């Protein structure tokens, strides 16, 4: 329902603190009308209809892509902006060297000026959402106020949004306050600010992804990681996947890879034909909230209800389920178009682009047709491998935690940490080549601890300390592993086929956790013996396998020196036991 700002027809069960906040925001931003989202299908259809009429969405070919739409974002607004993302804590050190920091008072003042009257002539959407299954004790709610219909529609797909969330907010009494305006989409007037101490987010000047869909990175990672430390759990940039063996034994893995490094693909993996009987169940593709359960294991829920996934590279061979899933009821952002009004992207393997992602006639001289960070938004329920456990209030028990990065050299295909504390060091020492998911250079190796560099809402030193403590909280800890699907040969070709074939590595990981597979001890951890990895049906040279599993001591000594320097930059807040793990690794390498 949309009403004039002085008469916001709040639903009857909207709690008083929420009504007050909505009125306060409306008084400052002065929208033409207020719409309280109820999350219904009719509302979603109406949002899309309105955006299409306004030219913000293009309807795609209704025969081949029914109920699919294309959104072209502002060309200066195509990815997360890490340099404009701030954690505003009272004490600078609480945000840590890993975050941009601004004093809360200064940030509020800056934002107040930007938000003043910014919604004039626009509709203000009030979006109540629940991160996690509605009836899970682990779920947390928030409300995003936004002047973007695109954001409201995306939040419908990405979260449990609307009436049920509002009812839970009324029950819980508290919620994360997220305020968002696209402003003028001016990169010079763009800020993504977090106030973890008061559970607030304010985002101005971007309509894209993690900058604007505040339930995702802002709430479920930055704010939630802060709450998780206070309350004794973990909020992580991890997919959650169930791996069912031909014998019917299912194990759940939680895997942290940096942005655009293969989480969605691994979460929806299609087993290779040579591994019949294996099944993959997707619980989540981007974020995991992990809690110690009564049985002493770590249990994970996916706070999200949809996928905001990388489009380029998706085809029938790499990810058949994703390919099928995005053929209906999907919002595409920044893909190219064919003459038949079908979406097109690099790696699609069929069709030709007529218009690029900016709607210009495609000219290869201007770069790729689809933006490298073009995305699909789709409800998780459309995933053919969606796990029946994905809505379980208690989550799923985690057998292994897997870290991974995009490293053309050095990191072997897979290795296992010796124990939890060593595993925390493996995570803290992660590095990966940067991708198009954030603005800035692509392909530069940077440190990205636990794949959380852009997402940890507090000082990494404290975060590692919290991880180490979690080792004492859960009595049956998952094994910790590191993988790298992205090793390359001298010509720049990937050494490992990746995608579905990654199941071979997951199988070894599970077998290790179950005490069923041999490993070869190396200074950095255990790697598979050649016999313990399942290679039948895979066309790969034994020399390539050896290269993929090799641990080059000299190169690792240099790496560990780099890791040491990085960890030292956290000063005396760095946990002593992490420094201790590092020196143990150093002596193993000597
Ligand atoms: P975010 O949504 O940004 O967090 O990314 P993500 O980690 O979910 O990455 P995603 O699965 O979307 O993959 C990103 C890119 O890596 C896509 O272009 C994929 O096609 C490619 N990719 C995924 N898995 C593999 C793999 O095993 N090998 C290779 N070579 N490429 C892969
Ligand atoms: C990522 O960058 O890790 C994403 C996409 O998952 S965004 O929602 O834009 O952050
Ligand atoms: Mn992500």
Count the E strands.
Answer: 30
What's the gyration radius in Å? Answer: 23 Å
Which stretches are low in confidence, meaning pLDDT under 50 for 5 or more residues running? none
Percent in helix: 25-40%
Task: Provide mean pLDDT, rounded.
Answer: 97
Termini separation (Å)?
A: 68 Å
What's the shape? globular
Q: Give the bound compounds.
A: guanosine-5'-triphosphate, sulfopyruvate, manganese (II) ion
Total of helices: 16
**Structural class assignment:** alpha/beta
Our estimate of the beta-strand percent is: 15-25%
Largest sheet, in brief, is:
10 strands, mixed
Question: Could you characterize the architecture of this molecule?
Answer:
By secondary structure, the chain is of the alpha/beta class. The protein contains 16 helices and 30 strands. The strands form six sheets. Strands 1, 2, 5, 6, 7, 8, 9, 10, 11 and 12 form a ten-stranded mixed beta sheet that branches. The chain is globular. The N and C termini lie far apart (68 Å). The structure holds guanosine-5'-triphosphate (GTP), sulfopyruvate and manganese (II) ion. Sulfopyruvate binds at residues 80, 209-210, 216-217, 259, 286, 308, 437.
Key terms:
single chain; 590 residues; alpha/beta; ten-stranded mixed beta sheet; nine-stranded mixed beta sheet; 16 helices; 30 strands; 28% helix; 22% strand; binds guanosine-5'-triphosphate; binds sulfopyruvate; binds manganese (II) ion
Overview in brief:
By secondary structure, the chain is an alpha/beta fold. The longest helix has 17 residues, at 215-231.
Topology:
Blueprint: E1 2-3, H1 16-29, E2 33-36, H2 41-54, E3 58-59, E4 69-71, E5 85-87, H3 92-95, E6 100-101, H4 104-115, E7 123-131, E8 140-146, H5 149-158, E9 160-161, H6 163-172, E10 176-181, E11 191-195, E12 200-204, H7 209-212, H8 215-231, E13 234-236, E14 238-244, E15 250-256, H9 263-267, E16 279-284, E17 288-292, E18 298-301, E19 306-310, H10 320-325, E20 331-333, E21 336-337, E22 343-344, E23 375-379, E24 396-404, E25 414-416, H11 420-428, E26 431-433, E27 445-447, H12 460-473, E28 479-483, H13 503-513, E29 519-522, E30 525-528, H14 542-549, H15 553-568, H16 576-589
Helix pairs in contact: 2-5, 11-12, 11-16, 15-16
This protein binds guanosine-5'-triphosphate, sulfopyruvate and manganese (II) ion.
